[in-house]
Amino acid sequence: MTVDDLKALVRTIPDFPKPGILFRDVTTLIGDGPGFAAAVGHMADRAEAAGAQVIAGIEARGFIFGAAIAVRLALPFVPVRKPGKLPVPVLAIDYALEYGTDTLEVDPGAVPDGARVVLVDDLIATGGTAMAAVELLRRAGGTVVQSLFAIDLPELGGARRLRDAKVPADALMSFDGH
Question: In which pathway does it act (predicted)?
């Protein structure tokens, strides 16, 4: 399946979660077996080319893509979690949202020192969550060598923000608007 075929599987919902927003819904892509398999295949090829030794996924939809990529490459998967979900002492980072803050956590023993980590999520918008995840994975001892997304919203600048921080950013597809 081509990237254009995959892009056609992403549903656009206008005015969600608020007026003026075009929400890009990946549930229709992951709900299409051949489409999901093709998206994972494309992303796994990019992770492999980056020399991934560990795949990390951001909760929640990053788990879907990241775990599938990890399985395809027979690599470990590290979940970057929301607070209170891990049963061990954690490394945590607070980060800014449009209205307030949020926190991400990771098991400090989940990333071998110096491991080449590829960070995965479904979508990159402003990049705040991804930048926090990168910092957290670095604190855990990893070297983030690539960030991969199914969708980029380039007008919001998140991929550029990652690249400016020396983290290569790549997406299968991009959509204009936000």
Answer: Purine metabolism; AMP biosynthesis via salvage pathway; AMP from adenine: step 1/1
